[in-house]
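Handout, page 2. Input:
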Amino acid sequence: MALAPDLRRAIIDSVAHGFAEQLSFTQKLVSFPSVRGAEHTVQDFTFRELQRRGYAMDRFPMDRAAIEHHPGGSPWSEEHSRAPIVVGIHHPRTETGRSLILQSHLDVVPTGPEAMWQHSPYGGEIVGDWMFGRGSADMKAGAAANIFALDALRRIGLQPAATLYVQSVVEEESTGNGALMTHLRGYKADAVLIPEPEDEKLVRANAGVIWFQVELRGLPVHVREMGAGANAIDAAYRVIGELRKLEQAWNDRKVDHEHFQNDPHPINLNIGKIEGGDWASSVPCWCRIDCRIAIYPGVDAAAAAREISTRVADFARHDPFLSNMPPQVTVNGFHTEGYVLAPGSAAERVLGEAHEAATGTPLETLVTPAYLDTRVYALYDRIPALCYGPVSRNIHGFDECVSISSVKRITAAMALFIAEWCGTEPLAEAVAVD
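Output:
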């Protein structure tokens, strides 16, 4: 049953009443430079904020062995974050509604040269309708919305009438192992909502992602005898050329994947990092390239990784130098599959109604060739996995920012969604929410 008009209006007004505090909270989250491996303080802050609101708390490390034994686990490396996962748990007095997971990640990608930012990367500066800062959109605004959508219900004396988990994870930007760890910990619900910056749209289909590294060796000599040596960096360029051919071949397969058929270039290969050599006057004897490539939903990640390795090996056999010094291909991060959100679920219907009530427009869907944590719940829990969040600009780029008015709209939609999906009941006890 849809929410009564008076209750709907009261929830939207409550979001507005608490929105100034929500913005301040988001700025505080942005102030933490929570790049990979440095997320401990922001996770501790989130733990305290959820605990202060009266949630039962769980804070736990990632279980490397369990992750490595799960088909959805990505490889562990020395760079893997050891920051804890944080979960705030709400239990109703009477379980009458449908349970829900609200998840966010608080790890962010590096800023690059800060001199190339017009706004401080960790300042959370507000200019007009935009809040700037690394992670402001991806996805600290969503993390705050998870908490403040629930605060909005509490402010009018209500709480969800079902078990609800507020999950804060890390490793979303590099392996997806944080979300997988909550699954392995045993947290389950009837649906999940993750407010990633998706321009107020619902993700219909999501690509999988593979990170891999290619290591090449050369023969070092003085540059005066360059012809007697073998340049590993030059060899890397040749391998990159072959990988571009693989990228094109995978893009040509989009005709077999209905949700990606109209995307002009759904499979993007990114040469994200290259390093090699030791001295400008020595022919370099080593080079490493770090790459990222997407895979279509339904494509097995292990099979795709084997195809990459086979392609590089076959190319090397026909290269005069690489045939004697074959490159090594290693999967060193994301090893994750994509998913398709089947239309017509009750959760999608409820979110659509909530979105329309909050924004005045019908809910649209989109397809994204990026990684999303919703894959864990779609593939392994097989529940409606909803990825829906605010309008943004420049995620992973300079001057990343999120639209403040959009954050307000999606927070209202989320609060309405929670109220209808979970049902509501009077607060179990007085909880201070300004």
